[in-house]
């Protein structure tokens, strides 16, 4: 489903259904590790919070919603570089997916879903010291 096809109401409802992840250890880990996934998760939380605060009749809704989709797409493409980062990402996505209540996959655009699969594959292979097989 393309983000262009989603109504403002759908975007706001989806953002509102994803609460901030309740993992206090993530903040402590992110401060001590250079894994880029921690910053990507925080940007996603911030974008969700901004969308949560919007009124669907707000005339200025387009910019925050555009930013939400941009940050979500960046999250799909960010490769965790540490086991803690990979765990933080999968925990975030499990929580987010559970709060979608069957509305579809978290990364519902084909490009983002493919990018996420590739970044997850890259992270796991790097952490396991594997090389990509043809």
Global morphology = elongated
Number of helices: 6
The SS-based structural class is: mainly alpha
What's the count of strands?
A: 0
Report the uncertain regions: 1-5, 16-27
H-E string: HHHHHH
**Helix content bin:** 55-70%
Tally the structural domains: 1
Mean pLDDT: 79
Percentage beta strand: under 5%
- Largest sheet, described in full? none
Distance between the termini: 30 Å
The Cα radius of gyration reads 15 Å
Fold and architecture overview:
- This protein has 134 residues and is an all-alpha fold.
- The protein has one domain.
- It is 64% helix and 0% strand.
- It is built from six helices and no strands.
- The protein has helices at 8-16, 24-32, 36-53, 62-77, 83-98, 110-127.
- The longest helix has 18 residues, at 36-53.
Please describe the topology of this protein.
Elements: H1 8-16, H2 24-32, H3 36-53, H4 62-77, H5 83-98, H6 110-127
Helix pairs in contact: 1-3, 3-4, 3-5, 4-6
Any descriptors?
134 residues, mainly alpha, 6 helices, 64% helix, elongated, disordered N terminus
